[in-house]
Amino acid sequence: MNNIFSLEGKVALVTGAAYGIGFAIAQAYALAGAKIAFNCRSKEHLDKALADYAAQGIDAKGYICDVTREDEVKAMVSDIEKSLGPVDILVNNAGIIKRIPMIEMSVEDFRQVIDIDLNAAFICSKAVLPSMMKRKAGKIINICSMMSELGRETVSAYAAAKGGLKMLTRNIASEYGQYNIQCNGIGPGYIATPQTAPLREPQSDGTPHPFDQFIIAKTPAARWGDVDDLKGPAVFLASKASDFVNGHILYVDGGILAYIGKQPK
Ligand code: NAP
Ligand code: GCO
Predict the structure, then answer these.
(1) Average pLDDT over residues 165-189
(2) Which residue from 51, 110, 175, 188 has the least number of CB within 10 angstroms?
(3) Residue 239 pLDDT greater than 70, yes or no
């Protein structure tokens, strides 16, 4: 059974994996035997990430590449192919969020979130699919969200992008499943990373952030998720174990989507 979860000999590109969820997924893939490539936009983040991977004994190949730029993505994928081999596993993880009430949000801000959180997955998937089609094998994993299913105040652009990403996942699965390419999504719940740090900061009087308490009450597991909670699901969707799973969004959310929320005492 262990072998069906092995990624030995595979090349994995995890976008935005300088830290946070992407870093944890790349770590898990390396442990499962994959060769790792990752990217981010900032040289500072890249240098620190390379040191962090090395400290874990992972010889990751890092790139400064903005996933919204097709020319940069194509150049990165081409270099990965030359140095590590063709990309077997693509994780579209890079993403941002802007928490602004919709009527106060500028068109530029809305467009930037859509560009990074949705259009970039199209760009990166398009860059790796032709080679996967030739080799009749490939795994694409899109990092969706609770906001692929639910809305909430101030995250209109993010929810629109993550809802679109769910349907892009299903469309890639539909269009390329015949080439033995599986495209699935992971929908993390509320995970403790830099992206959600503002929602967890204690208040000036030291009491927990109201949103922190809200999430604890909405999650049957009664805790925030940790990036380690995503490692097993990510390895499953990248491995042979999921060769007949396609177009599926695997929610790793501690039960939020199943739960009406803790009843007030
Ligand atoms: P994070 O801590 O903010 O990390 C985001 C990563 O993406 C960073 O490495 C960042 O590096 C990179 N990035 C951002 N824009 C980029 C661009 N245009 N090109 C290349 N890299 C870019 O976020 P996270 O919490 O780990 O989230 C990772 C993914 O999971 C995102 O798609 C997010 O929407 C999703 N997600 C997060 C949660 C959660 O609770 N944390 C839950 C559900 C889904 P640079 O800034 O250096 O580019
Ligand atoms: C927010 C959070 C969420 C999480 C995640 C939940 O402001 O509501 O940032 O969007 O990041 O996407 O799955």
Answers:
(1) 99
(2) 51
(3) yes
CA distance 144 to 169: 9
Ligand 2: atom nearest CA of 155 is: 7
Does pLDDT of 128 surpass 90?
yes
Measure the CA–CA gap between 46 and 117, rounded to whole angstroms: 20
Question: Which ligand has the nearest atom to the CA of 154?
Answer: 2
User: What's residue 2's pLDDT?
Assistant: 63
List, in order, residues 6 or more apart from 76 with CB less than 8 Å away.
Answer: 13, 37, 39, 63, 65
Element (H, E) at 62: strand 61-64
What distance in angstroms lies between residue 81's CA and the mean position of ligand 2's atoms?
Answer: 33
In angstroms, rounded to a whole number, what is the distance separating the alpha carbons of residues 250 and 91? 14
Measured from the Cα of 190, ligand 2's closest atom is 6
Q: Does the beta carbon of 147 sit less than 6 angstroms from any atom of ligand 1?
A: no
Nearest CA to ligand 1 atom 35: 143
Residue in 39, 41, 91 to alter for ligand 1 test, most ligand atoms within 8 A of Cβ: 41
Mean pLDDT of 13-37: 98
Decide which of 118 and 2 is more confident.
Answer: 118
Q: Domains plus CATH for the chain? A: 3-191+227-258 (3.40.50.720)
CA of 136 to the centre of ligand 2 (A): 35
CA of 66 to the centre of ligand 1 (A): 12
C-alpha distances in Å from residue 7, one per residue of 4, 10, 30, 66: 8, 5, 8, 26
Average pLDDT score over residue span 246-259: 98
